[in-house]
């Protein structure tokens, strides 16, 4: 158990270490997700579209729609939080990778893993506060959402977004999503977006590129 | 258009939507949506070698199966293998562009089941060759045989059974499961099998529809048609939507119903859910949840009618102009001495006013809540009371549906945009039939209530016509109970899906005891199914990816999707139409059965199918004024109609005074047909049905003394991760949801069970084993178990899959409604094992998080 003095030292050391080894890529423009927690029916078409697109076996789930409920009968509530990889501004996974397999794209800030370099050590899985990296035992690699870079490069949007039956999931430049200037059906006319949902990991950790329309019970 | 700049990666996701579309249009004009790369970053890509969509061949097709909707699937294939599926993105329709998605012509995006189709197409459960049973029935032992052997033996047995047991010996249990297209159609009443058996001259038909017979009856009696539905875009115009037992977040009725309701919400529409469960629809639309005891809906609706009349909130003009028998003034001249609906509601005739206080005791809903809802409904215009099918799948379910129609009518919410007369809810009328449709389309020699077949087999010949709902005939076969000796299952998993499975199995065991040759069970499907396990012959049917057809939404939606043969049929699978045609040739009526084909059809179906579809498209062009050539339709893959205004059922009747299709030409709250039926035992209903909607106590409910022994009421709604039983075997779907019994938290505390525990759910009809999900989202006393799990019986006859139909009762409501939701049961913790699927793959519950404890 470190004493308070040590704690301060540890913090200082950690900050110093970070400065030494990792300068996050500053993308020209950061793409990110926006999800409407309230209007989402939780159908998980996005999840299955993702599995099909990426040819995943049962087990690893790049995209996860979480069901949150609470209250007592009959005053109950429910909402959904839909997350894959948040393509963070300061991804925790990236510096954790011993082989440099994880990289952040300069053009759009997408965080991707070069699977030819991945050795399946699963460190990224441990460091990610949002559970994005998914280990695939059959291939002994870790893989995750890359926002369908092939689709984005072809001028389209990722499979999950194009699968959304309720049009509550979208991507766009995260700063425009955040300041409400990005036109998207995911955000209704009277909706505001937020960078955090209740019980989600602290966005200060990695600055995730995702915004939510939050349920009143999920507001922080 | 020339101003679009070259795109850096991601630049197409522009804040300016018009710029975004412009850019795409430019790229498209330049010969397809070629990737425009402007950066050397990220040359590495996660999944090399990995064909990108634009390197693959793109083929537009659709999903299939029996969900009430129909969405686009786009196959991306290499050679004869589908690499992945996407869905409508706005590009494929006329004047389409990537991202086009308007309120008038929305994209028809596939749900999770459709998106998983590749896993079903290439699943280990696919049937690839004809198989013949070698073990006992139900044992699951088969050997591969040739088509010739299988069809010869089936034809021979058919002739034998017809000769020995008469023209009613073979039971048609086709259903809409596998083949919903205009050409390759499986259908309970008029599909390819019905025509085949009818022409063969040996067919007992199953007339009651498991999903919605109560509402079919109600809509026919009340409006004279089942086309009482608006198109789904009409929902966007409602000011109040009451979801009565309706969960559009689970049951996709219409391509975009749930999305249009989201638009309604954004425009200020209020939502109410009357349901024992707080569903995802309730949370999405922020609905006021009114939990109600299952099977008591008619009582609550009656109380609403009482409140509306007592407070003079009804639309007397509408009542006078359009209804029969709503009140004394609208009773027909010939029935002046009979009871009107208002007489019944106000207690004039029976001395019991159907007040909210009266209903509170029955429904468990506070009288004040009933009043508040009735007030909201009667004073908000337009308001949509969507009386869903599920509460009709009950004892006397037809009374609920008819009661709802009466309440819809008394408030004048029929025939107006934003109102709702549903019922069945079938909307826009599509041109549905490309297969030969003639005098043989629905020939039958007996027609029974669909879930009474086992009762007939077990009790024959000591069965009365009214017990089994025999449809009347005008010849010597009227009232003759069929001696059923075989079943054809086409696109149907009915052994798993009808009520009281143990009784069905007993019926098959009775056949077993009568000798191998004396019965015949044939299952035609694309995969092995729990029903197929019991068959004598398994015939592999090509999926809709492997045959030529056109898809249509049968329920709501005004579009067609072309379904080419995307890949060649796997193994030796053939289309249903090929199989029936070949069997018909062997039985001597081949040319009549398939007039456009020769016997070569079995090996070469392409030109014949094309000819049928071309002829069908001509009808579409003439009847529906589709202004697109067949060749262009095939090239694009989709045709979306643009309607001048949202389609609203009965708009013409209300606006122009065109008569309704009932005997009186009015909305018959008091039914002419029912009032003039002298003897119900000689009708298909078998027992009395009152001419006006009434609350009738069901044979079991939370109000009955039987709760002492079986204290829980079980309902078995449709799951989202299966279409009935289809897709139960798909690992991708099984990891997103799992079969489990939803139990209220206070009940669970009393029983000492928690989420993840395994329980036995049981009553005097059967037992199944299933894990528990404990929640506050269901009312106390009610448990929920989704239908369609693939039965998996252990040596003691206990079902390990959690299939609720081991507990349901095979006694339909008088009008034919399956009483799927009229079930009392008990639960206890158990050491027995639950098996989520036939493989050993575990099904991981994706967690539900309680976030307020």
Topology summary:
The complex is a heterodimer of chains A (220) and B (853).
Chain A: H1 4-21, E1 31-36, H2 45-54, E2 64-72, E3 75-83, H3 93-96, E4 102-104, E5 111-113, H4 123-127, E6 134-136, E7 141-143, H5 149-153, H6 159-163, E8 169-173, H7 174-179, E9 210-213
Parallel strand pairs in A: 1-9
Antiparallel strand pairs in A: 1-8, 2-3, 4-5, 6-7
Chain B: H1 17-29, E1 57-62, E2 72-78, E3 81-86, H2 112-115, H3 117-121, E4 131-133, E5 142-144, H4 147-165, E6 170-172, H5 192-200, E7 204-206, H6 213-223, E8 240-244, H7 257-266, E9 270-274, H8 280-284, E10 288-290, H9 297-310, H10 316-322, E11 323-324, H11 341-346, H12 356-363, H13 367-379, E12 383-387, H14 397-410, E13 446-448, H15 453-459, H16 465-468, E14 486-490, H17 494-497, H18 501-513, E15 520-525, E16 537-540, E17 549-551, E18 559-563, H19 576-587, H20 590-593, H21 606-623, H22 630-636, E19 638-640, H23 651-656, E20 667-668, H24 672-675, E21 712-715, H25 731-734, E22 741-744, H26 745-751, E23 758-762, E24 767-775, E25 782-785, E26 823-829, E27 848-850
Parallel strand pairs in B: 6-14, 7-13, 8-9, 8-12, 9-10, 11-20, 14-15, 15-16, 21-25, 22-24
Antiparallel strand pairs in B: 1-2, 2-3, 4-5, 4-16, 17-18, 18-19, 21-26, 22-25, 23-24, 23-26
Helix pairs in contact in B: 4-19, 5-19, 6-14, 9-12, 9-13, 9-14, 12-13, 15-18
Percentage of residues in strands of chain B = 5-15%
**Corresponding CATH superfamily of the largest domain in chain B:** Dimethylsulfoxide Reductase, domain 2
Termini separation of chain A comes to: 31 Å
Name of the top-level CATH class of the largest domain in chain B: Alpha Beta
Just name the CATH architecture of the largest domain in chain B. Answer: 3-Layer(aba) Sandwich
Give the low-confidence spans of chain B. Answer: 1-46
Kindly identify the CATH topology of the largest domain in chain B.
Dimethylsulfoxide Reductase, domain 2
Structural class of chain B: alpha/beta
Round the mean pLDDT of chain A to the nearest integer and report it.
92
Based on the structure, what is the oligomeric state of the protein chains? heterodimer
What is the global morphology of chain A?
globular
CATH topology of the domain at 25-90 and 145-218 in chain A: Alpha-Beta Plaits
Structural class, from secondary structure content of chain A?
A: alpha+beta
Q: State the helix count of chain B.
A: 26
SSE order of chain A: HEHEEHEEHEEHHEHE
Q: Tell me, what's the shape of chain B?
A: globular
Biggest pleated-sheet summary of chain A: 3 strands, mixed
Low-confidence stretches of chain A: none
Q: Strand content of the residues of chain A, in percent?
A: 15-25%
Give the strand order of the largest sheet of chain B, numbering strands 1, 2, ... along the chain.
5-4-16-15-14-6
